[in-house]
Amino acid sequence: MTTQKPFNKEFMTFFKNYDGTEYFMYEALSGVLTMLVADGCLQGIYTRCDSASANLVRQFDRDMRLGVPEHIRLFHPCNNLEWGDKYAAVLDALNRRLTEVFEMNAIDFDNQ
Asked: What sign for the dihedral angle of Cα 87, 91, 94, 97?
């Protein structure tokens, strides 16, 4: 039996882009950035752990610490509840779309 690690907001950073079409969750201990994309027909969930993802988080953090005016910032804060709501919406949209595709093409994975 596996146990789930407790959620520790201390090591998590949640933010979104200026137009609210991309949401980010950065886990500082692992260096993994999870991105949610919800931009019309473009829907997706991505994880990345490269230096470019760390740079996104640094830019967000720097802008917040320096008090960059909101109308200039590329990224804005969000909380874990807002991120979770967007995660559920993107996951639901992906599930609906894949179900439609499988049904249209009569793909039955159980009987392959």
From this structure: negative
Residues 80/15, Cβ–Cβ less than 8 Å: no
Neighbours of 32 (CB within 10 A): 13
- What does the DSSP 8-state code read for residue 109? G
In the numeric block, which tokens belong to residue 68?
């960059």
What tens digit of pLDDT does each residue of 55-98 get? 999 999 999 999 999 999 999 999 999 999 999 999 999 998 88
